[in-house]
Amino acid sequence: ESAEPVEPISHEIPPNPLLRPQENSKQPQQSQTSSTPPQSQPAPQQSQTTLQDFQEQFQHDPRLQPPVPDQPDTAIPDDDISIDADSAYDDGASMNESITDTLDSAYSRYRWENGRRYHSYRDGIYWGPNDEVHNDQQDIAHHAWRLALHNQLYHAPVHRPERILDVGTGTGIWAIECAEMFPDAQVVGTDLSPIQPSWVPPNCIFEVDDVTMEWTFRKDSFDFIHSREMFGSIADWDEYFRQCYLHLKPGGWVEALERGVKPVSDDGSVGPDHFWTTWGDTVLSVGETWGKGFNAWEILKEKMEAAGFVDVVQVPMKWPIGPWMEDKHMKELGMWNALRLDTGLEGYVMRLFTMAGGWTYTEVQAFLGKFKACMRDPKNRGYLPGYTQSPAFILRAITDSDQELCLWAKAFECAAESRMNHLCSTSMVGKI
After folding, report:
1. Which of 40, 37, 43 is nearest to 378 (CA)?
2. Considering Cα of 395, then 310, then 388, then 261, what sign does the dihedral take?
3. Whose CA, among 57, 81, 141, 258, lies 20 to 30 Å from 321?
4. What is this structure's pTM?
5. Which residues, other chains included, contact 404 with Cβ-Cβ below 8 Å and sequence gap of 6+?
6. What is the pLDDT along the chain (432 residues), one digit of tens a residue?
């Protein structure tokens, strides 16, 4: 008998059902270079490290050549977004659908640089990627912040809010959890990228917006305005807090969580000649060239007071790099912080260093390799600092005179002093 013909087996990998359709079709193939971390270097000596040191070492390393994305390094400028309404002139519903589809396409037609994906709306004003790798890091950061705040979303004494604004919402995870906490309140999250999930609580909405432009919300409409890690994103903090002041209801609260980018130590293991010191100085310097500094945690208190908020309370906090602290809570926080830095540091500096600093892809990867080599040395007991060697700020303020809240602020400040070495954040309470 003649054998029936055998149909060849297809080896084509089916699309990932967990990704959005456009990400299955447009996500570029990452090269072996971008997924392979640089080799760990021996623990650095206590001598001044310069850019030339690692340039000579890594200049011709083939593993550090930039990946070539499938997408061109292009994005749609804002001025080029055009809406053809003629075809829908006789159908109002069709015209609305056309406008929505056009805007969605413009916002989600991202730019690719050095194998990383970036926002297209207001192209180039923000340093962070919006690809799946970086979005995962944002969710890790959210978990770390909740851990730092002892499983809380914020510190402000918010009671029965009706409307909440989350500035720079990212993946939207904070806004979603806040909406679940307050089902009777409307939670609005804004960001440059429409990367938030579609399945969200009915009282949670997301908008594509740039916080550095004039706000279009109704004045005196929010009970609570929240932001987190906006370093390198806002050039004029005076204007930011002016907008917060105008859009908060009397008695409303604003809270900003920030931390430093330059590691320090209490035992001298991270001294002035340590590479982590070189790292921090470089990020701060390039940030100044970028026009949006990375030292937000140092200036937020005075900026908030200048906007009219008073009775500001600050609570310092440490973010250890690695699980070297003896305290169980801080050890766990250090583990999560180290994971975030080890897997996500490239996204924090790739565009910043190449666009504002004029670095090459190879130079950035070499710099990252040095940082990670220091992370693997147990003798380095560094942490990311904030105000007076306390690395994160939670700043909040009220816009109404309230004696009870002022007494609460004083009590909070006294309690914070007794656990200075454990809790690492800064809180501000203010009134008119």
Report:
1. 43
2. positive
3. 57
4. 0.71
5. none
6. 455 555 555 445 455 544 444 544 444 444 444 444 445 455 445 445 555 554 555 455 555 555 555 444 444 444 443 333 333 334 444 444 444 444 455 667 788 999 999 988 888 888 889 999 999 999 999 999 999 888 999 988 888 999 999 999 999 999 999 999 999 999 999 999 999 999 999 999 999 999 999 999 999 999 999 999 999 899 999 999 999 999 999 888 888 889 899 999 999 999 999 999 999 999 999 999 988 989 888 888 888 888 887 767 777 889 999 999 999 999 999 999 999 999 999 999 999 999 999 999 999 999 999 999 999 999 999 999 754 322 344 555 555 444 444 444 444 454 444 443 333 334 444 433
Which residues, at least 6 apart from 386, have a Cβ–Cβ distance to it below 8 Å?
Answer: 258, 259, 260, 297, 298, 316, 317, 392, 393, 424, 425, 426
Q: Which residues pair with 191 in a beta bridge?
A: 208
